[in-house]
Write a structure and sequence with these properties.
It contains 17 helices and 15 strands. It has 548 residues and is α+β, with helices and mostly antiparallel strands. The chain starts with a strand and ends in a 7-residue tail after the last helix. The structure holds a DNA duplex (22 and 22 nucleotides). Keywords: Coiled coil, DNA-binding, Isomerase, Topoisomerase.
Amino acid sequence: MQLEHRGPYFVPLYEPLPEDVRFYYDGKPLKLSLATEEIATFYAKMLDHEYTTKEIFQNNFFHDWRKEMTSEEQEIIKELDKCDFREIHKYFVDKNEARKALSKEEKQKLKEEADKIQEEYGYCILDGHREKIGNFKTEPPGLFRGRGEHPKMGMLKKRVMPEDVVINCSRDSKIPEPPEGHKWKEVRFDNTVTWLASWTENIQNTLKYIMLNPSSKLKGEKDWEKYEVARRLKDVVHTIRAQYRKDWESTEIKKRQRAVALYFIDKLALRAGNEKEEGETADTVGCCSLRVEHIQLHPRLDGQEHVVEFDFLGKDSIRYYNKVSVEKPVFKNLKLFMKNKDPTDDLFDQLTTTFLNKHLQHLMDGLTAKVFRTYNASITLQEQLKALTNPEDNVAGKLLSYNRANRAVAILCNHQRSVPKTFARSMQVLQEKIDAKKKQVEEAQAEVKKAEDEFNETKDAKAEANVEKKKKLLKRLEEQLARLNVQATDKEENKQIALGTSKLNYLDPRISVAWCKKFGIPIERIYNKTQREKFAWAIDMAGEDFEF
DNA sequence: CGACAGACTTGGGTAGACGTAT
DNA sequence: ATACGTCTACCCAAGTCTGTCG
């Protein structure tokens, strides 16, 4: 076991503002101490973000900022409302503009400098192989944002110093030098873990790690193992489903809750839903942490029976909204679990993820709740590709089918994105193209008619040829219109769907590789360079007859 | 057990690189 | 050549799950 690296690259130290860029308090300029000024710039940079208008953000920021002030500053700066950061804000906006306006040569020079750092710090040696590191830089200080309604938004995220950093490498390797005048917190030689360096972050008091890039052998092997576990689930999933159906009728409530939760995890690809510390993070839930207020039962709805309406915030505060017709015993059990409870009570009050996973472990070695997501995602891709791919289609048509299959998975896993800022605009441009094409089609139709009339009158061969010519043109235009319409549909369907996460984390790449080989699609058409590096193991391994 | 620490995967957002249409 | 839209790389937060400790 050998692990050798340079340690993390530390982001540059704070550079003080020029003299003429001032902070104002209560309308008067105020020279700030270096540390206080640095934190002020964090806030100033964010001025045009909506979240600086949120009370929690402002309070957290002001509280943390005051802690870092000198006692003199604390005496003066008592209200955030009286702080004027606008000059500082403008300074950074201008600086940004200036950087964008740099000449090609200057930009090239900056890039070379960045490449040099990457070259020096971005790689390590693992068992004799040079491997790319994922994140080799420490995170810069700033104001914590978080996602959704995070109670800690606006808090000060402190600068990481070498004295905070634990280095992990092999005993026989060249131990990285800390920056001049500094020491590491610790150097250890632990070959049971995969990280190269770590530090504790001050907002949630959790560890951050420097780890290898997904293209590395180590990560690739882990990825492969993950999909192999999911493939093993394929063999036993029918038994497991039979089992949880039986458990719906168990005399133990705890077992019933486990069986219903597992049904949701399997059918709807919900996350496990660990419990979280209240007040420390945004209020989000997964399966086991669902509360009564997150579901509504409809004995009948839109012509379906036993409909459960889900509405809750999941990971990253992404909304999960779904109406699902469930099997009758599930519906009955849910009614029972909700009886005499308040909206804020846990739906599965007897259930924890640990209890659920213990059970799963017993059903299959290595089985946990999240394996169902991987399994269902991958099997769905395989089935959808089978159903949607038409061998007669051209490459573009086949790729559309691939995207549709990918999209089915993203919908299953509820991978959403906010509508891109340019969406409306680019949709409009496309619509204009469609309208123009429609007009052309209409004109071509008129032309055909005219030519036909002329032929009917004259019956001469020249006129007949002209009819054929006009018809051909019409056909081509109609095809172009159809293609534009497909494109518009595709775009609209993809508006709020994020395909990347499933592609990167849930879909066994061997399914895609096999599909490409089978239908003669170049692999570059579905995986970009980074993705090909990450999935190199699969590209090597999978033949066209690979079955998940 | 249950709380907590630790390690690792999964997740959406965004700046800026990049490619394409004009 | 440039403007503009799209894609990628990067960022770092937020999950999952295991092991340990009292």
